[in-house]
Amino acid sequence: MARKVFFSFHFDNDYWRTQTVRNMGSLDGQTLATANKWEELKRTSDQAVRDWITSNMKGKSCLVVLNGSSTAGRKWINYEIKKAWEDGRGVVGIHVNKLKHSDGTQSQRGSTPFSNITVNGYSLAGIPKLWIPGGSTSQEAYDSISKHIGGWIEEAIRIRKQYTGAL
């Protein structure tokens, strides 16, 4: 049975790449908001966005940050990472920059989204893993993610359990 996960990503840059990972079939992720729905949600209120995140994280065992060139440091990505950790979910990152976008391009690898996150005064820097898929082509990166993502998620869940009560 596939793990239920919540995908965290920079919508404008990586929605297409996220769909690619989501469609691998090895995970059960939340239904992704459309561009119109996400923009509508952001225009309502910060509380509405927080409520949407909370609702969509319910029942998920792991947060998978699909890290593109501009993912780190974004307000809602930071919120999702912190919330997932506080709620006891596994947290893992995967660089998706080698996966082609809808226009056929790859992007630059982004910096770690975990280094500036603190929970109860403790830094998450170096705790959740940020994986670099093998290969240099989009197909090689896809194959690497497809082969390893299940193990990466299981490891993230084990790592989070090691920190229960510690942070």
Automatic annotation (TrEMBL):
Domain Thoeris protein ThsB TIR-like: 6-100
InterPro entries: ThsB__TIR-like_domain, ThsB_TIR-like_sf
Domain of life, source organism: Bacteria
Name of the protein: Thoeris protein ThsB TIR-like domain-containing protein
